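Researcher: We plan to redesign the surface later, but first we want a full-length starting point. Tokens attached.
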């Protein structure tokens, strides 16, 4: 508990930073504005979802750069600077022109600026404050996305009802402006050398771990890349199109917002429970069964006659997997590769997560536009969840790392 006594302020700031950053907010607003935008402009769902695809690909490609900057210059200026940029650009969606190129351009700018306000940065600080309780601490930090998913859809629905879909963006941008930014300015920082827990540094105070180049030479890095990509391809579009999936089963936008809230509860449960178990057991052995749950969820969502309770169950299981997957990236990056180049390595592992999450909504949208339902994509997701989870079992034992590893070879 001494780690929590020392690091609770940074953990709180990181939780709020994650909750109000570029990771959850766009993905919780877009599902609710897709319908109104389609009605107003007649754009197909794949084209509308293409905005978040552009955002995700650009942000993911820049994730290693932002991570390397955090390694080199410190995580505080990178995270806070990106958060400020994200606030400005997200609020500016009020001014999106009524054309697809204009819509896509706004998402591109958001990707250029916002990636530093995601777990790519916040998790570096948390991982440096916590070692024995790292899984639980990262799980608590990532609860931020659950909080966003519980609160933001309801706020966005109210904003849309009051002033149209454009109003949802500046209203939601008030969350990072009024909550996350002030707390980050007060409390967010890396630990000093004397504050770092055992397991983060060696006896000489040097950070333990591999360089990005060394990590890429081993099979574990590429196993994680493939596993993360498959799971992101399966999940990202299911979340973005959840409101439409619910509608195809005959339910209202208010019901859809409730389902997204249940997804958020699943994310919360997955992050806390899986993070706690990661600290006590071999993490891949926990992650594999966790990834089988969304395979069941995708199957439950097939068709158009499921009851609301079945859809709620599917949403919860999908959320549980999303919570576990985020823990997998952050925890295993630190556990298998160390902290010496954590930002760069996490950023590289975030690339398939971000790109997969960005492409997935397009795939779901294309299937919907061409077949009238999401069933084919949901069945493909069943297989991708199962294979992605099984790949983690090949990672093997945790390695013993030293500070000299980052400078060797």
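Model: Full-length starting sequence:
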């Amino acid at each position: 508990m001494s780690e929590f006594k020392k690091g609770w302020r940074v953990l709180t700031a990181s939780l709020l930073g994650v909750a109000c950053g570029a990771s959850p907010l766009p993905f919780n607003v877009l599902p609710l504005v897709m319908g109104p935008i389609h009605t107003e402009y007649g754009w197909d769902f794949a084209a509308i979802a293409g905005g978040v695809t552009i955002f995700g690909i650009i942000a993911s490609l820049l994730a290693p750069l932002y991570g390397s900057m955090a390694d080199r210059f410190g995580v505080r200026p990178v995270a806070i600077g990106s958060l400020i940029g994200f606030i400005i650009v997200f609020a500016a969606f009020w001014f999106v022109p009524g054309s697809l190129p204009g819509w896509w351009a706004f998402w591109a700018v958001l990707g250029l600026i916002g990636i530093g306000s995601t777990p790519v940065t916040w998790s570096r600080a948390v991982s440096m404050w916590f070692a024995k309780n790292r899984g639980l601490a990262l799980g608590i930090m990532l609860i931020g996305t659950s909080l966003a998913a519980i609160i933001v859809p309801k706020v966005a629905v109210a904003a849309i009802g009051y002033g149209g879909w454009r109003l949802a963006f500046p209203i939601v941008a008030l969350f990072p402006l009024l909550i996350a930014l002030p707390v980050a300015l007060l409390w967010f920082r890396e630990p000093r050398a004397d504050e770092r827990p055992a397991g983060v540094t060696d006896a000489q105070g040097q950070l333990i771990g591999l360089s990005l180049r060394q990590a890429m030479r081993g099979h574990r890095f590429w196993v994680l890349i493939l596993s993360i990509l498959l799971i992101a391809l399966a999940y990202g579009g299911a979340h973005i199109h959840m409101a439409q999936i619910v509608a195809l089963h005959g339910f209202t936008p208010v019901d859809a917002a409730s389902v997204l809230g249940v997804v958020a509860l699943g994310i919360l449960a997955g992050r806390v429970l899986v993070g706690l178990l990661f600290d006590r057991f071999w993490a891949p052995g926990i992650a594999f069964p966790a990834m089988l749950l969304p395979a069941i969820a995708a199957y439950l969502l097939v068709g158009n006659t499921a009851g609301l309770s079945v859809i709620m169950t599917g949403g919860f299981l999908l959320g549980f997997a999303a919570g576990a997957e985020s823990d997998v990236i952050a925890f295993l990056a630190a556990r298998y590769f160390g902290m010496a180049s954590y930002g760069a390595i996490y950023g590289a592992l975030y690339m398939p997560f971000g790109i997969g999450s960005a492409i997935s909504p397009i795939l779901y949208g294309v299937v919907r536009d061409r077949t009238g339902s999401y069933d084919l994509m949901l069945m493909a997701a069943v297989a991708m969840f199962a294979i992605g989870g099984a790949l983690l079992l090949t990672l093997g034992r945790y390695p013993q790392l030293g500070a000299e590893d980052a400078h060797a070879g």
